[in-house]
Amino acid sequence: MRLLGLTDWRSGRAADLVLPQAVDSRLIDETGAMSADVDRVDASGLVLAPALVDPHVHLRDPGQTDKEDMVTGTAAAAAGGYGLILLMPNTQPAMDGQARMADGCTVIDYLESYERDHGLSLPVDYALCVAATMDRAGRQASNPNDWSGHLPGHGWAHPVVAISDDGSAVTNQTLEAVAANARAFDLPILDHCEHHEHGQVNLGTISRQLGLEGIPASTETAIINRDIEQAERTGTRVHLQHVSTTGGFEAVRRAKARGLPVTCETAPHYLALCDEDLLRCGSMAKMNPPLRSRADQQAALEAVADGTVDMIATDHAPHTLAEKALGLKDAPNGIVGLETAYAVCNRVLVKSGLISHDRMIELMSLAPAELMGMHRLLPEDLSSHKANRGCKAGHLQLEADRRSDTGQPPVDLVILDPDAKWKVDPSRFHSKARNTPFAGAELSGRVMATIKDGRLVFSRLPASRVITRERI
Ligand SMILES: [Zn+2]
């Protein structure tokens, strides 16, 4: 069986998806309720693709569950077509492998045993990104003795697959030690690549118009250039998070031309919006790095088109409406993104003619999985898989819980309708949070269903397309 390849995947058009005789198939419908015993899905005329993978997600659990928690955050991911997400370490306490929660367990232990301890099954898979420094304070590198036992290969359901101090850049004083840890355990450093002490929005005409302190592009390019130098000098794998500036993309482009071990992501909002949208969206469009100029937005689109951008991450960052009501000056940075990412990218990248739908799936699924070292099974692989033996052409037979019996990659799929038009209504999000600049936006492209490990975990398909066991 072939694992994913970044260059040769093509969208599949599916007829029926025959789901396994799973004991706990569960379906989150549009009301957020779960129902069991889904047997078969009629996906005719829709696009079947590998489930999306997000390498940059904040679910706020533990520590800030008024904003989001594991249940609502993973429901939002499933509704957004994601099968796998990477949890950032800025939990409270920080996910550094050492800091303890009130009950004495570390955040890594808490997240590893979350489903067992809470007696539930979450709809998407997740892996962990350990903090680069103790308590994310930027003073001392985190101790590998505290987390290296959770690397892949030790039998954990939610292994540590990357190292980061998100949402802070790794500090100059700790970079050498953090990079040495990353190399020793073959982990990529995911760097936030944004450092500034002051400022609320991008420096420019808009910041002056709003009377707010501006954040210059150099706050990003300084960290990017520093990290590229580190990658060149030491061979450390560096992944630059949510790159947003013309200079940042250009630096990454040059590093790649020299063959350095550097990858980067950008986020849907840097592709769809610019700082002019602050005038319309206010604090709902406040994030870090800030929405940049219209020229930077264009540079982000060009960097996707020419392959400088390796992948797209949401940086899903839930906040309460009360916090966002503090206004542009005082509201916290960040927006939610899991439930709008596919449609926003489909509109600005595919419907605009910039890239193909298949290439977008590579950016939103295959490349992030590669970064995390967590391979996915492709739809076309299913046709030759043993689980598919004896099936009629056009039918896919999925197998339950394959990892436990075969050790093979999970069958995580998404069913998409690239032409469906819809209007973003945050009150219908599965996320606990509503902080999005896309409220009311008319988008095209809808996630219709998400299949995790052969089980339907989310669907907004019409009832006639979802066949439950009772109705057979
Ligand atoms: Zn982040």
Automatic annotation (TrEMBL):
PANTHER family: ALLANTOINASE
Pfam family for this entry, one: Amidohydro_1
Source species of the chain: Bifidobacterium asteroides DSM 20089
Residues annotated as signal peptide: none
Coiled-coil annotated residue ranges, if any: none
SUPFAM superfamilies noted in UniProt: Composite domain of metallo-dependent hydrolases, Metallo-dependent hydrolases
Protein known as: Dihydroorotase
Sorted UniProt keywords: Hydrolase, Metal-binding, Pyrimidine biosynthesis
Family: Belongs to the metallo-dependent hydrolases superfamily. DHOase family. Class I DHOase subfamily.
Taxonomic superkingdom: Bacteria
Key word rRNA-binding present: no
UniProt xrefs under PROSITE patterns: DIHYDROOROTASE_1, DIHYDROOROTASE_2
Cofactors named for this entry: Zn(2+)
Recorded GO MF terms: allantoinase activity; dihydroorotase activity; metal ion binding
Functional description taken from the UniProt entry: Catalyzes the reversible cyclization of carbamoyl aspartate to dihydroorotate.
